[in-house]
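From the shared-data thread, chain only:
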Amino acid sequence: MSVLTEPPEMHTNILIVEDDMAIREMMAFSLKREGFDPIKAASGNEALEQLNQVHPDLIVVDWGLPDMSGIDLIDMIRRDEVVKEVPIIMLTARSEEHDKIKGLERGADDYLTKPASMLELMARIRAHLRRSKGFETSHKLSFQDIVMDASAHEVTVNESGVSLSLTEYKLLKLFLQNPNKLLAREHILNHVWGRNTIVEDRTVDVHVLRLRKALKPHERDKWIQTVRGIGYKLATA
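Structure, as tokens:
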């Protein structure tokens, strides 16, 4: 069994992008009551500012925003390397079938028309979270004999436990999600530390060294390979 020397982050952040204050506050209240952490934005630009600060687990987007359409905001999110995989539910007063199709084709994962039942919205949020990375039926990631059980926050190599700090755990998780793929330092910084965090590229190097040190007793340190001048990758050869 692995031991994390720092507590893992357990919050589930839901970004609400809705210009109607009453609806926005009602959704935030319902989310908080259900154990989620709501983040609120009243416009597309405010949502983009929030996305520079946090990485939400799911986004609820209104179609009609004051500064841009919800569709345009979804386009921007889907082009963003850091948050492009986040599930998005579109919430709108438009009920025509062609509007629903347009929303789904442009990147929304689901579509609810107003006035929407909060019970139905919560059910759909939970359904999409179960399908997303942190809530899959299988919580395990693996590469060869390195296995990470995300539900238990445990890492083993050949069934022997590995002790990791929270940052090392996040770093290894990113490698396990991208086996045999070259990850640039900037990509690693964005995904492990957050896009708006002020840290240097050297920070990545230091934590890769620590991760290698944790894997060395299991003879897997060399699997974290350096690609000079670019970044790192998890590979056996």
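The first strand starts at residue 13 and ends at 17.
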